[in-house]
Design brief:
Blueprint lengths: L11 E2 H8 L3 H9 L14 E2 L1 H15 L4 H14 L10 E5 L2 E6 L2 E3 L18 E3 L7 H20 L4 H14 L4 H13 L3 H14 L4 H13 L3 H14 L4 H13 L3 H16 L1
Antiparallel strand pairs: 1-2, 3-4, 3-6, 4-5
Helix pairs in contact: 1-7, 5-6, 6-7, 7-8, 7-9, 8-9, 9-10, 10-11, 11-12
């Protein structure tokens, strides 16, 4: 159920989240239906999401990229939502994907939300597949920088329609404060491509990949920029890198298929067209 709220507390639009995270409308709607994400509406307008909502959606995105099947992901997140108290702190809450299963760590305790079974944690777990909502161990200045960057990011999004130059400058300030802020690279690059500054957009995406190499949408958007610049071979490599990280991005399959077809690589084109059609049907 949604509620009326201000754009200050829920600054993110559904469209911007889909663009930034690469989640399908169906996946987001399922998380809304489960009550795990609780967007708001103001005056019957489109959904708006809080920073907490974005963090939860980002977690779903990362877990999907880590290989957790969508059905299991949604089932596990639903079970987690049912078990967590309404006032559960976001600080220190972690979700880990290990061996195709989901585990939750909170206040030193780790368990599987589907079974409720406690999980013993011996030693240090590898970083791959782990999503930290708000890292607890960052130094105070790093936490402050991230908070300031997130606030500036919200301001930049609001500036996009009324002050493109101001939005661009603000996104660049976000990147200065938080070099691993993938959303800022994505939004800034998208803005630049929209006004045919594709070379500059490419530089933004490549800078982002230095800090966020495992972000599939940075690879995807880099491919789009390269394609706009006529660099189709490099674009194909970026589409493939995107799909290695997240195989269910339909547009990446579609664009790669077209480029392979243009290059006369029929088998690869057929493979990607087939994947695109399956994803569209699903």
């Amino acid at each position: 159920m949604t509620s009326t709220t201000s754009a200050t507390s829920h600054p993110y639009t559904l469209a911007s989240i889909r663009q930034t995270l690469g989640l399908s409308r169906h996946a987001i709607q399922k998380l809304i239906d489960l009550g795990f994400v609780e967007p708001a509406r103001e005056g019957g307008r489109a959904y708006r999401l809080s920073f907490r909502d974005v963090v939860l959606l980002r977690s779903a995105h990362e877990l999907r990229a880590a290989g957790v099947p969508t059905r299991q992901l949604l089932r596990s997140l639903g079970a987690l939502k049912a078990e967590l108290p309404a006032d559960a702190p976001v600080d220190g809450l972690r979700i880990l994907a290990a061996g195709g299963r989901l585990a939750v760590r909170l206040d030193g305790t780790q368990w599987e939300p589907e079974t409720g079974q406690l999980v013993m944690d011996f030693g240090v777990a590898p970083g791959t597949g782990e999503v930290t909502f708000i890292p607890q161990r960052h130094a105070a200045h790093a936490t402050t920088a991230r908070a300031n960057a997130d606030q500036l990011f919200a301001e930049a999004e609001q500036l996009e329609e009324s002050d493109a130059e101001g939005a661009e400058a603000t996104y660049r300030r976000v990147i200065e404060l938080e070099p691993a802020h993938a959303h800022a690279y994505l939004n800034l690059g998208f803005m630049l491509c929209e006004v045919r500054r594709c070379g500059e957009a490419l530089a933004v995406y490549e800078a982002g990949l230095l800090h966020c190499a495992d972000d599939p949408l940075l690879h995807y958007n880099r491919a789009v920029a390269l394609e706009s610049l006529g660099r189709s071979a490099e674009a194909l490599s970026s589409y493939e890198a995107c799909l290695q990280l997240q195989p269910d991005i339909a547009d990446a399959h579609h664009n790669a298929a077209l480029l392979y077809a243009q290059n006369g690589q029929k088998q690869l084109a057929i493979r990607h067209f087939g994947a695109y059609r399956r994803l569209q049907a699903g």
